[in-house]
Amino acid sequence: MVVVGLLLMCAGVGAGDALAQSMSAPAAAPDYATEIQPIFNRRCIACHGCLGSPCNVKLDSYRGADRGGFGVNPYSSHVDASPRVGMDVVQTTKEWRQRGFYPVIDHDGTSASRLDRSLLYKMVAAGSAHNQPGFSRAAVMPLYAKRYNHQCPATPEALNAYLQSTPAAGMPFGLPAIASAELEKLAAWVANGSPGPTPEALAQSGAVSDKAAVAEWETFLNDPDPRNRLVARFIFDHVYQASIVLEESAGDFFRLVRSKTPPSRMATDAAGPATVDQPVEVIDAPLPYDDPYKYAGVDRFWYRLQKVTTPRVQKNHFVWRLNKGSLAHLKELFLARAWDLTQDMKPPWGVGNPFQIYRAIPAEARSLFLLENAEVIVGGITYGPVCLGQTATYAVKDHFWVYFLDPRFDPSVQDPKLGLETWSAMMDRFPIGNAEYAEAYAKAQKKLTPEGLTVDAIWNGGGTNPNAWLTVLRHETNVSVMKGRQGGVPLSQWLVSYSGLERLYYDTVASYKYWEGDLGKLETLVFFNFLRQEMEDNFLLLLPEKERAPIRQQWSQGVFGAIGRFVVPFADRSLPGGVSGQRGPLLDAIARIQAHMGPAVSGPADPLNPIVKPKISLDSRMSGYGRWVKAVSLLTDTTAYKFPRFLPSVVLLRLNHGRESRVYSLVVNRVYKTQFDLFFQNGEALPDEYTMSVYPTIVGGFPNLFLEMDLAQAPAFLKELRSVASLDAWNALRNRYGVLRNSARFWPTLDWFNAWNFQRRGEAAGHLDLSYYDLLDTVY
């Protein structure tokens, strides 16, 4: 019934007239929690679930839908700062209106006027009218090409004009329309005034499984002892973006926040002990080290574990898993050591220099905290709350392994100030200041390890902690991280010191202002390049001295690479030592590192990306997944073929065999002359060095393409893939096996991958993002 009115409206009849013709009264309002939010979860949060989503419309909660949109495009170039748009910046819709947010749903008027005034409904209705399966992909692509210049219509009249000129812009944008039953539910909800979740639904979603476990952590974090207060501040700075899982509170996710209200307290009345819950009132200061007292106008604040009630989105979801053993370990790590109580135990706020602020905490404890939770720390860098990375990722190479200096061999732990006169050079982003730090670090390293570094200087996590070896992947505009040695042998490696990791984290996370103009973001990017070079140089110290300069030049080539190598001095290039052997310096060093780490850290053998390829023919029939693994491994970690240069960044493959289906990620590893070229990345490409890696799971949060095939089809697919030597050939292969954005199979395929992700990866899983799905061919 509503669909009839919608089609009339899209044909040119006014919404009010169409509805008058199609129905006499709206259907009852669907329940928000059980009927409307699930639609948003399945079809909307893939693009509208993060900070800075299109038009700043965030649909992972009723608060976000009611807040509406904002006209400033977060990804367009702008010199001046834009307003912060995090959901806790203000608490009420009225306050968001005062900040310039406009409504996308309408609570007032008649049913017909609510539908006519709802921007959200009008966009979904336009999608239903124009983007049924089989719609023209060509009509969508020009809109994608200009997506960073898009202006968001803020009124129904402006939106009507926009949709009249660009009818393909309906929602879900550039994807098949939602099902008619879902559209009718949305129409009934909007027509009835877009009511939110009931108090009972809110109470149920906010309920915590184990309040005692939460209380134990909040007690620790709010202990008034000066050491505890400083440790809690240090922890908050480093994990405030993480999704926290307490094993004792099954099924719950939390985030660590600062609150105006204290944790739950025990009160005694005539009926005996009772828990009095104090609702969390988040103090959302711009940066984690900003003064919460001044920002919130309070004389005291508390650290709280706030339950997360919004759906998990893969692109910004990373987990810090804790239990009672973790709490005991943190107390021992930080509080069982001797502190220098002559240092400032109440350091000032607003200073983005962790070396200065936390100098009273033993440096070894700080270092070990970061090492033992390295995936979480790097997760903050790679899975930040913003939607898209764009050029921010240019400083990151497509595939590299990360190791960490053992605190015993780390000069920034053993001599935290590195002999510098002040702490300021530790966080100086400019070339001269960074060079001063590099020289001081090199001098301290030579003093600490005069015979040079060996693989024994690498922290191995006690042979049990897989955080000791990380794999980092860049997928053009976004980055992901995994534990262990994965994806074949990358071209470059990092060896990270405590000071290097802190500098990297504070540059890209704790001090990063997503709302500021381009100049500030450029400064962050330039400093990241300095840090990347520093980490690569540290690794080169494990190689023979004669090998260091040639490999350094190979890792950063061309004019821009030469400039970068000059600007970032290799101050300790003459440090003695280095691994030598028969297979070449890199492979010899990696082999020794793997032996030093042990199998629990490095992970199992990687048959999908081996150096030595199996003896198998692609003409062989595949009788099981084992044959597939061997066959596809012929195409991985090799530059023998041209096809990697035409692949999109991440392809998710569903491979069926009988009643079983397995998931593989086909990931392209692009290579550039240098990461110091900030503006002409594609012009610095070295496509002959591109490779493909395959992973037996979902990688990243931004799939570019879904493929589906039966195992029996796999030999033909691999032979065709191996022979791809042009974009046209790749497109032909993609069209045969891929699920394009206009396919009737698209939503069922996405639903299947999301379900697999949550079922197989559990707490690490989130909803996949579609921002880069089936993009312009010229992009890849």
TrEMBL record:
Protein name, per record: Peptidyl-prolyl cis-trans isomerase
Signal peptide: 1-20
InterPro entries assigned to the protein according to its UniProt record, in alphabetical order: Cyt_c-like_dom, Fatty_acid_cis-trans_isomerase
Keyword Metal-binding (UniProt): yes
Pfam families, alphabetized: CTI
Keyword line: Heme, Iron, Isomerase, Metal-binding, Signal
Domain Cytochrome c: 31-194
Keyword Signal in record: yes
Annotated GO MF terms: electron transfer activity; heme binding; isomerase activity; metal ion binding
